[in-house]
Amino acid sequence: MAKELPTSRLARGTKLGVAVAGNVIRAQRTRRSMRGRSEAVRARMAEESMIRATEQMVMVLGTMKGVAMKLGQMLSVLDLDLVPAEHRERFQRRLAVLRDSAPKVSFETMIAVIEEDFGRPISELFAEFEPEPIAAASIGQVYRARLHDGRRVAVKVQYPGIDVAVRADLKNLAMFRRVLQSAMPWVTPAVLDELRLNLESELDYVAEANTQWEIAELYTGHPFIVVPRTMPELSSTRVLVSEYFPGRGFEEIRTLPAAERNRIGEIIYRFYVGSLFTFNEFCGDPHPGNLLLGEDGKVAFLDFGLYNRMDPKHVQAELAGVRFAAEDRAEELWQLLIDRGVIDEPDAVTPEEALEYVLAACEWVLLDEELTITPELASGAFILAVDPRAAEYAGMKQQNLPPEHLFSRRADFLTFGVLGQLEATANWHRIAREWLYGDPPVTELGILHHAWLAQRPQPKKNPTRTTTHRKSGTAKRSKA
């Protein structure tokens, strides 16, 4: 039987603390042993020590699940420059474990969660239930099953005690903030605060089931995007039941010819980024484990625990900011960022620095040419924007991004990271002009998408919603 997940803050803090202490001792020993060695030997030993420390941190993040696991998933998507280039492939393989195959909990333990939530034996709920999980995520495992009416379904079940574990992780990450920043300086207070604000919402599968049902309804009949419909009436706080979608995972998608990867890349971009500017809502958790390629070429998107519906005025402000940057209107951009509360110390940031900072983050969608997104391009933009080791834009990095914009920028960077893992090529600017300037589509997918928009029926209301309030992934909003 699999080892139970430690849920107490002390147990989980100790596990992280051991890794941290080991890293400190290892670094001290390495420094002592360097005395008298040649520069080349010292460089090699420092590199090996750093690789061992980083890999140990990856191991700890993977075994903790919860918040630490989510941080590890972010690492895997953005391919940050934590290890030398010649070791990156090995490091990425370790990170892929975090992304695709979290440590498994026994079938008997997970079934007990289902039966406890529903108060009935599993045989009454499902006609068939396969014991081997088909996927593992940061807070649960996914199984394939069949309902008594014959429908094939995917059943996502939370790890027992994960709610306690997540809250313990939240406290521990605050405690170990300095330690994490020593290995990953981009893990700023804003990044951890954003994780804290949003991750607890992932624990409520009833809310996620309702949200996913509504998104599936929103995209009904779409020519290339699929969101499997959930069954909220069969879902509980720890169990989420949805339609089963057979498809190829991301690692298989990466082996496809360039033309197909480019097509899938455009679909990913339209769903994760375009949805914000089309519907004022978007998924806040883009990563490779959350999408599947169907036999018909459609891409299915999964996992909507982090989902945000933004006030249209915030969306329009983001559009205006990108347009100002695209048109080199530095003064207007600077004033907009002040008005929106992005810049709260105007004397610390010049209009030119504000412009250069925004361009560093989003210039990839402003270049009117075909551009291949690489892992280095995606991680480089992210590091420039948030890593304090990069001296550029120091004034902007001292500002506090309001929660509604932090959430959308995180989704944007992670989408960029997924496209980098895919090495997708497109004229991203021509696609973005559809929402930046209202231009007609110029790609085949864009034409299909706009034809669907023109004829789609009004989405049905979710009958299981008990209130008109639509839960957002963002827990707080700043004043406009």
Which properties best describe this structure?
480 residues; alpha+beta; 12 strands; disordered N terminus
Explain what the structure shows.
- Helix 2 (39-64) packs across helix 3 and helix 14 (330-339) packs across helix 15.
- The longest helix is centred in the N-terminal third of the chain and has 26 residues, at 9-34.
- This protein has helices at residues 9-34, 39-64, 66-78, 88-100, 107-118, 122-125, 162-175, 177-183, 189-199, 205-218, 250-253, 258-279, 312-326, 330-339, 351-362, 375-386, 394-397, 403-422, 428-436, 444-455, and strands spanning 128-129, 135-136, 140-146, 152-158, 225-226, 239-243, 281-283, 291-293, 299-301, 307-309, 371-372, 425-426.
- The protein starts with 8 loop residues before the first helix and ends in a 25-residue tail after the last helix.
- The strands form four sheets. Strands 1, 2, 3, 4 and 6 form a five-stranded antiparallel beta sheet that branches. The chain has a three-stranded mixed beta sheet with strand order 5-9-8, covered by helices on one side. A two-stranded antiparallel ribbon has the order 7-10.
- A hairpin with a 5-residue loop joins strand 8 (291-293) and strand 9.
- The protein is 54% helix and 9% strand.
- The model is unreliable at 1-39 and 466-480 (pLDDT under 50).
